[in-house]
Amino acid sequence: MKAFALGIAAVLATSTLGLADTVSATYDWEDGGTIVGSYGNLGSATNVYWDPTQGNVVELTEDPVSGTPQAFVAWITGLNDGDIIDASFLGFGDGEDFSKVRIWAHYTTGGIDDYGGSAGGNNTYSGEEWTLLSDQWEFSGGTDGGGDHTGLVIEARIYTYSGQLMNSAFVDDLSVSVTAEDVSGIEIHTPAIPAPGALALLGLAGLAGRRRRC
User: Is this prediction's pTM over 0.70?
Assistant: First the structure.
């Protein structure tokens, strides 16, 4: 499992007919971030410039070519049973010249590395132009219902085949929203790079941790 910068996106809360609220977050990779984590044979996740229209995107490389690597592009915590999660991103890659990508999700039982089972996804793949990939999940097995699911990870799954020009796929314009009766504890973690002050605090925490382990 690789470690990557993890930011908590600013969320926008809106009321829906007084019955439920929605929190949402977007991320476009323009600040230089990559992903929030990974599983399997993901060789690299690199923030690259695409063109003036698309701007910066994340390039995901499968290395070695084997299995199905997963790039974690968002992690939602503080969910309760019945909460509805909608997520989407743009994917590029046709499975011929480039790897292809699709959207998927899995549960966590603690931290982002604690796998709690697949949540499924969409069987639509990216193509030879930017393709909108999206799906919806209803959160279940949460601690409020007696289960051990503590979060949901949104994945970009990579598929590479022999004879391709490149073993890379590309992702851009992530969008995540959660509709729930209570959104007060929900956090949407994206690859956003923490602000300088937050980085300084992380550095101090790391130094303190090293001192405690000595």
Answer: yes
pLDDT digit string (tens) for the chain, length 214 residues: 434 445 555 455 544 445 689 999 999 999 999 999 999 999 999 999 999 999 999 999 998 888 899 999 999 999 999 999 999 999 999 999 999 999 999 999 999 999 999 999 999 999 999 999 999 999 999 999 999 999 999 999 999 988 787 899 999 999 999 999 999 999 999 998 866 554 444 343 333 333 322 2
Which CATH architecture is the domain 7-213 placed in?
Sandwich (2.60)
H or E element, residue 203: helix 196-213
Nearest to 85 by CA among 154, 156, 7, 182: 154
For the chain, give every domain's residue range: 7-213
Non-local CB neighbours of 30 within 8 Å, separated by 6+ positions: 55, 56
